[in-house]
Amino acid sequence: MKNDEIKNILCIEDEPEMIDLIRLILNRHGFDVQGADGGREGLEMVKKSPPDLILLDLMMPDIDGWEVYQQIKANEKTKDIPVIVVTAKAQNIDKVLGLHIAKVDDYISKPFSPNALLKSVQRVLGIEVS
After folding, report:
1. Considering the entire predicted model, what is its pTM?
2. C-alpha to C-alpha distance for 40 and 117, rounded to whole angstroms
3. What digits encode the pLDDT tens for the residues 27-69?
4. Residue 21 CB coordination number (10 Å)
5. Cβ count within 10 A of residue 97
6. Which residue from 6, 37, 84, 98 has the least number of CB within 10 angstroms?
7. Distance CA 10, CA 102 (A)
8. Domains of the chain by range and CATH?
9. Pair 69, 87: CB distance under 8 Å
């Protein structure tokens, strides 16, 4: 990744430990990771300062992740931001729904390996892996 192009990633997740873990993994590779505590805060942050990529949890108490996703995609300013769904809901039907019906850019099941997260982020952002 070129040094002058720090990619901003917003992690919308209701578990602070998960945000910290994702930040730890991705900061090491030159990404700037912001955390939003749940769907409502995430939507506010996306509107205020659209990130280069959104990592989105599906199971959140305030607003369900699919609802957050639909609102992001319905907004002209934010509809082109790529979204990677990060969730513990690992059933295959959810993955199929996510990738094909909702057209999310990728899908990572918790627990994930740091390498799987990094590869997904790099692929979705079109970053050459050295």
Report:
1. 0.89
2. 24
3. 999 999 999 999 999 999 999 999 999 999 988 889 988 899 9
4. 18
5. 15
6. 6
7. 19
8. 8-114 (3.40.50.2300)
9. no
